[in-house]
């Protein structure tokens, strides 16, 4: 029985994922050692807070941060990061969220960084404050926006230059004692980014576990300041506990905590022991991976794809870098619809409806093109993509 046959049993079509690590296409494939680790984790019990504490130490080692936490994804990590900046460890504030009345609840974001991943911040109860224009923000705009109601500045990694850089944002925000959260969900590779944003002064950084890290789809890494991670923990763990026997009861006695909170805003974002273990194994494997070998493989794949594409009538291939700013080469295919006899939209649709079904990156589809990304391609799939394209269009006969 093939390892993919479960989808056949469920009568759900399998696809070739030629669009990178997109969540809507299943992210990417997990590392086999991470899958094995999840199976092993499913066979025994641990106290979840002890597992998360150990995860925090490992994340700290890998990222250079003080502490860390495993989340159910980068988006979940952003929600929990914003909630931590608003509520801290005050049980009354933790209980009130997502009603953020009476606490700092403004999250500043540069317009050039704004996208629909501000929903996690708003779900936590924050109000977005936008500064700057699409291509430019002035330092004084950030200065002017910071006030006693500011909870955090949310900074998107991998944005084009123009808006304020992370070091600039950190310098200004920290002068006003406001933490900076970085959305680094799609910022790997390069692997250096695991440490870079922390080194540049970010207080909390969220990475996706299900993209380049090749951990479980529903996992993420939150790395950063120990006090903020403490708040994340308090707002995330199952709080069906008794004060007299609670793991953190000493903090109640010493007054570090005013009281035991109820279930927090993070409680619906459950992370299983299997996800935590799978993520940790994937994270450690990513650190010791041969990234140069990955780059060479992608380069070889895109150059064969590009050559193949350029032999098909009506198509023109060009090798570019991924539009998200990651150093992953992709093939941009431009369609000359008068020669091809069909538009890029039709080709993308036929690829998806074909056998095998192929999903390419359709970001530039209305400009008459699409992208083929090698990140999630398995052996032999490159040939299948070229074969399908040739079948859909006619091969140039010279
Ligand atoms: C993918 C992505 C997210 C969400 O990450 P998940 O791990 O899927 O929750 C957030 N922000 C950006 C920029 C992303 O690319």
CATH topology grouping of the largest domain:
Aspartate Aminotransferase, domain 2
What's the oligomerization state? single chain
CATH superfamily of the largest domain: Type I PLP-dependent aspartate aminotransferase-like (Major domain)
H/E element string?
HEHHEHHEHEHEHEHEEHHHHEEHHEEH
Ligand inventory: pyridoxal-5'-phosphate
| Category by helix and strand content | alpha/beta
Biggest sheet details: 7 strands, mixed
Give me the side-by-side strand order of the main sheet. Answer: 2-8-7-6-5-3-4
Q: Gap between N and C termini, in Å?
A: 43 Å
- Poorly predicted regions are none
> What is the number of helices?
16
CATH uppermost class of the largest domain: Alpha Beta
**What would the average pLDDT be, to the nearest integer?**
95
Which percent bin holds the helix content?
A: 25-40%
Radius of gyration, in angstroms, nearest whole number: 23 Å
- The general outline is globular
Q: What is the strand tally?
A: 12
DSSP strand content: 15-25%
Number of domains: 2
CATH architecture field of the largest domain: 3-Layer(aba) Sandwich
Organism: Candidatus Segetimicrobium genomatis
Keywords: Aminotransferase, Pyridoxal phosphate, Transferase
Protein name: Aminotransferase class V-fold PLP-dependent enzyme
Modified residues (N6-(pyridoxal phosphate)lysine): 211
